[in-house]
Amino acid sequence: MSNTLFEGTYQPFRIWSIFSIARFEFEKKTIDFPMTHRVVFAYLASLANRYGDISVSYLSVCKKTGVTDVEEMAEIFGWLMAFNLLSYVPTSLFDGERVKFKYRVNYPENIFPHKIIHTPLEH
Question: Taking burial as the number of CB atoms within 10 A of a residue's CB, which of 11, 15, 33, 87 is the most buried?
């Protein structure tokens, strides 16, 4: 991971609160939150904390988070979207060639949007 991954975020951005979420509840089901997905979500949330809606490529997020496969990153983005943690935001209807969009990260006021299921610590 890059040393500057979360540099420049506004307070009170709490990155560790994202890393500590191992499971959450979504539509009355318990969802495991894999660590790689947490790292990607935390990075995207840190960008959103600084810039609002963000425009990123899978490759750029791979480089910053240490994920080596662009296809895996595409799957992670899809997973985040499936659980309403990330969504598309159109920025223009048509620009000659293609529709342009940004991503909106669902991390309002640095609070995870779903009920967190706390895992008891093992002895």
Answer: 33
d(CA 38, CA 116): 13
Residue 109 token pair = 């006021």
Burial of 82 (0-12, 13-18, 19+ CB in 10 A): exposed
- Encode pLDDT of 20-68 as tens digits: 899 999 999 999 999 999 999 999 999 998 888 999 999 999 999 999 9
Which domain does 86 fall in, by range? 15-20+31-112
- Residue 3: both structure tokens together: 């040393």
Judged against a pLDDT cut of 80, whether residue 72 lies above it is answered with yes
Please state the domain count of the chain: 1
Bond prior to 12 in cis (omega within 30° of 0): yes
